[in-house]
Amino acid sequence: MAQSSRMFDIIQMLRASRVPLTADAIAARLEVTKRTIYRDIAALQASRVPIEGAAGLGYMMRRGYDLPPLMFSHEEIEAIAVGLSLVARTGDNSLEAAGRSAAAKIGDVLPCDRTSIDAMPLYVSTWHSIPEASVDLNIIRRAIRDERKLLIVYRDAVGRQTERTIRPLALVYYVDGIHLAAYCELRNGFRHFRHNRFEGCCLLDDGFCDGAALRKQWRDSHTLFDY
To answer: In 10 A of CB 135, how many CB atoms?
Structure first.
């Protein structure tokens, strides 16, 4: 998570809490170290964000502090509302939870003359026929972001099971399934893996630094709707 996003989350957590939050509690929710939280809070205080408290005692936001409004047009807000609602069609539960969190953050800082995200009179069907994921898709998205290899156990269409080390490049969401595009080191080439055929998935310490180049090669050699 980028520092700016993390600091925004810290502000939101402190504004929503009625009791002091310790650095340990904040660090656990944001999945970072306690030392990182101390640095972020010190940076926020230096920027005149009214955070009160101390290490070991916890932190609170002084009452009355508000974030500056986001200046979206009405049509931009409508586009955001529809886009976030469509996330429910992906079948990716952790991504859907992130969408709800994003909607809450945006709604919390919209100017009072803008309709909140939840109150938009725009509705999206959440229907899809995507099977339940057999692995945590959040792990796969993290591997793509951080350019880290995955060790997977995969079952193909006829039931054969293989163990592979792959370089994950992209997730493609369809109405009936989710495909992971990756460079497969076993096959020495690009392969596509259905999310519900994973028997196991482990994030490796090994990274790769050619993610952008591989993704371009994959995009240049594949049409998104061809697989």
So the answer is: 19
Output the pTM of the full model.
Answer: 0.66
pLDDT of 215 strictly over 70: yes
Q: 136 and 94 in contact (C-beta within 8 Å)?
A: yes
3-class SS at 172?
A: strand
- Nearest alpha carbon to residue 166 among 226, 214, 213: 214
Quick one: pLDDT at residue 227? 47
Burial class (CB in 10 A: 0-12, 13-18, 19+), 68: exposed
Alpha carbon distances (Å) from 176 to 114, 157, 173, 197, 210: 36, 15, 8, 14, 30
Note the pLDDT tens digit of each residue in 32-67: 999 999 999 999 999 888 999 988 889 998 876 766
End-to-end alpha carbon distance in the chain: 31
Instruction: Give strand pairing partners of 178.
Output: 173
What 19-28 contacts at long range (C-beta under 8 Å, 24+ apart), as own/partner pairs, is: 19/58, 19/60, 20/53, 20/57, 20/58, 20/59, 20/60, 21/58, 21/59, 21/60, 22/56, 22/57, 22/58, 22/59, 23/55, 23/59, 25/58, 26/59
